[in-house]
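User: Run a structure prediction on this.
Assistant: Running it now.
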Amino acid sequence: MLSHHTALKSLFSRQVLDGALMPDFGGAPDAALLDTQGQALGGLCRQSNLDAISVCLVRTDASFAIESITAEAQYGLPISELEAHRPIDHLDPLRKAVLRTPGTAVFNTDFRSLDAWRQDPLYNPYYARLGVLHAASISFIPPFRENMRLQVSFFAKSNGVFSPDFSKSFIELAGFPMAIFWLARFGAIDTAHLSRMRDLLSHRKPIEIAILRELVTLPQYSLDEISARVGLSARKTDYHLAECHKSIQPILAGDAPVGRANRLLDLAAAFQLLRIMGPSRGRRKNSQAPRIV
């Protein structure tokens, strides 16, 4: 079995990216693609109860309620997850929390226990109707579409629970390549971006993703600020940035060797799609982000 640390690193192996999280479309139906992604994630984090996944691209109003549906895909559910949720949308604290805080994984158990959910008014019309209970969701902001969200939701059946390794940090790291794939699948970004991001993400370390996320979402590039957000010294952060920049040089063909300032600009431009995750959990709470190594 993989350790949790190894599972996080393995998310960005070429095998997992090409074969599951960011594959070529081919002729496979949406449900089959989600099934493949679910099996890959379940195998990495020892999660045997990842029974269903729903992905949707929606337009939201000013209060983060769903205004309209642009595209939807799912597997493992008997009916449309969005259709089941529509009658109880105004009662559910989970959905708006997910749409309001992109890039942050939210579990329904963040609000109440599974036993309490079974007694909740939402249980029969939503959870029981879908045949699931333990749920986790994450949303992303499509480029240049602030009033839209791509939401990815994971479910365990009514008698199952997620394993501890299926954590917020795991979902947030796995969610990004999945989001790029489904944004391309739904036509929200060009397929060329999917191919390029697959190459850029290949063999990235979780700490590199955390650093790059801070880089592209900060209002100005600051090594000290990035370091504080990820819980590393400026020297260590600069080392990771330098190693990452060096490793993507074959992708940035024709670029000459650069100094630190241009290195940050290069990396920010190359990984700008990380902006779809929004600020990190630590930044959003105005406190230091949890350290990821």
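The chain is about 45% helix and 15% strand.
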